Amino acid sequence: MERDRKELPWRILIFLFLMCVSAVMTDHSVVPAPQNVSVVSINMKHVMTWSPVIVPNWNVTYSLQVEGEFEKIHWNQSWFNISECWSISINWCDVTHEIAANVLYNLRVRVDWGTHRSNWTALDQPFNRITTFLTPPELSLQTDGMHIIVKLEDLGPNFDYELFYWKKDEDTLVYNKTVNEASTPVHLETVQAKMDYCVKAQTYVKAINRRSDFSSPVCINVPGDISLNLWVVFFGVLISIMVLPLVAWKISQKLQYSFFPEEILPECLIVTKSHHKLIYSNNNAGECFEAAVQVVSSKKLVHFYTKGFVQCYESSQHAHN
Questions:
Q1: Whether the model pTM is above 0.70
Q2: Cβ contact 85:64 at 8 Å
Q3: Fold held by 31-131
């Protein structure tokens, strides 16, 4: 009994100590608040960032709230939870959809550690989307006959694109064209064949009435109308198909006469159209035989032809010798 009385004060001290520890653990100062809170805004994309909070042997989450200018003035500083940025494990969150007008917005973040919560940390200065940083769009060029095709970087539905193009080394005359979207390639029509052209672009955001800087110029050579070249090739092939056979035939005739020269038929073998008479003539070597005109039978006619041919052939061979 006496022993219990001696231990009672110690038990009371331990109880009070645990109560104090519990009170400290439930206080916001146990969980450190986020630091270096800021908004990074590029091309109308707004991302809130902060330095990560490290708690040994424990995973923390973060929760964000937003307050617009209207809510601050008319609703007595009403903060709203951002559902996409509630209880997240990363130290950044996209708040683009929460920033819908060209007014001041305040944002704040806290750390959640189990049942414990840190203090809220807000931006040092409210954010306005008109301060977003606009970058020049990236572009690439290619040609299609007499046209230049421009492919633009798609930066989103808030952007218009202003294109400027000119002949290389002749920047006194500059053409321009404005397009509302970059999802489809842009055709530049006013160009000349076999000329170098340069193109540059900038973006325009109507919601904030601001333009980006110009992109670096990109140049390309326009070769000409490919369809015209195809027609020239087509007619060239067609003409070749028609002319080459004739040329080949003429060459074959020349080669034939070169290797197989034509022999002149002896005059004594010249036969009239009528098969009933045979006329032989040889002015140089004399008559092979006297010309005779008479009606003969077919059998005699064959014999007559044969005899006359042999005599005339012998006579011609003698003349050559």
A1: no
A2: yes
A3: Immunoglobulin-like (2.60.40)
